[in-house]
Amino acid sequence: MGLKRTDEFRQDAVRIALTSGLTRKQVADDLGVGMSTLNKWITAHRDTDVVSRLRTKYRVQAPELKFTSVRNKPEFLRDLLQFLSDTSSPILIEATDKKFSLCIHLIECLIVPAVGPMDFGPKARLMKNMFADFLADNLPEDVIEMFCKACHACAHPLPGSVLKIHEREGAVPSQPGQLWSTAHD
């Protein structure tokens, strides 16, 4: 197991390797690190440096490079993708099907809510995913829209909302397990 090096040590090693005129092999030997380690540090430094320059050039201030922060900056995206392509950098792109995610939420909240440990197992997850696939393909858009509005209304209830009215009338349970007795009494 190798010695854990500080960030300051790594930065100094990169600076020396890039500015001293010595070969990387000489720098690695002098500092007591492997060539592959030094090369990784230099690559990481260059990648960070390029992305930082692109962020500055296109005024991207968000801490993470998410689509919402760069969607109106096609030149930034073009230059970033060109850099990633030129350096053969591995990239991770997170893609989410929003309708599928909403269907999963609909199922988990209203249709098949978890009530026991078996509801979190792989078979239950597979069943819910298959059901969500079916809903995402077949559920009318207005139903999804109504569900989103209902979630938003519950997250931000207005004074005198339907939920508060039902709570006063005893129709909405305040205790876990009260739903069953209230619904079937």
UniProtKB/TrEMBL annotation:
Q: Highest taxon of the source?
A: Bacteria
Q: Which SUPFAM superfamilies match?
A: Homeodomain-like
Family matches, as PROSITE patterns: HTH_CROC1 (PS50943)
InterPro entries, per this entry?
Cro/C1-type_HTH (IPR001387), Homeodomain-like_sf (IPR009057), Transposase_8 (IPR002514)
Q: Name one Pfam family in it.
A: HTH_Tnp_1
The HTH cro/C1-type domain sits at 21-65
Task: Report what the protein is called.
Answer: HTH cro/C1-type domain-containing protein
What's the source species' lineage? Bacteria, Pseudomonadati, Pseudomonadota, Alphaproteobacteria, Rhodobacterales
